[in-house]
Specification:
With 179 residues, the chain is mainly α. Among the domains are: 59 residues; 31 residues. Helices cover 58% and strands 0% of the residues. The chain is elongated.
Length: 179
């Protein structure tokens, strides 16, 4: 009988592994080596930037100085105007003469306005009281019935409407001002 070989399910096969040759890698330290040329260029750029920054800061400080001078001048102007305004207010309130003159002129103007209004109302009154020509030509046969409850179209003038000429003041003309 032939012999049977029992092969187990577990077979281990060894494949020879190859070694990967290692290549030596040269590591560069950033502080050493080829960076010395780069450092010189970077230093030049940094110095130029620093000088430009100093110029900008100098110009900025000069502009601030000019601005502070202008602001101080503006404050002085405000102080002067405030003092002047306070003096004018004190002068106007303490004296009162200018206030009285202005008040008198306004009163005079108001009186002239009243006089003109009276004159205009007197000019328009006769037209309202006069009958119109078309009404004069037609004979009045039957007067229209008057309804007491209905408001009238024309407000009747009061009976006592005398014009007071005592209060009349002649307006000021340019010829009178020269006198």
């Amino acid at each position: 009988m032939p012999k049977k070989k029992i092969i187990s399910d577990k077979t281990i096969s060894k494949i020879p592994q190859r070694k990967i040759p290692s290549v030596p890698v040269k590591r560069i330290n950033p502080l050493q080596g080829n960076l010395r040329g780069y450092n010189k260029d970077a230093e030049k750029v940094l110095i130029e930037n620093f000088v430009a920054l100093q110029k900008v800061m100098t110009n900025l400080s000069l502009k601030f100085d000019e601005l502070t001078i202008q602001i101080s001048k503006l404050l002085e102007l405000f102080e002067i105007s405030a003092k002047s305004l306070a003096e004018r207010r004190d002068f106007g309130m303490g004296d009162g003469r200018a206030h009285r003159e202005l008040s008198g002129k306004l009163d005079n103007l108001m009186e002239q306005n009243k006089t003109l209004a009276r004159g205009l109302s007197l000019l328009h009154e006769p037209r309202q009281m006069m009958p119109q020509p078309s009404q004069m030509q037609q004979p009045m046969r039957n007067p229209p019935p008057q309804n007491i409850n209905r408001p009238s179209r024309f407000n009747p003038l009061p009976q006592k409407q005398a014009v007071e000429t005592d209060d009349y003041k002649k307006s000021i003309s340019p010829e009178e001002k020269e006198e």
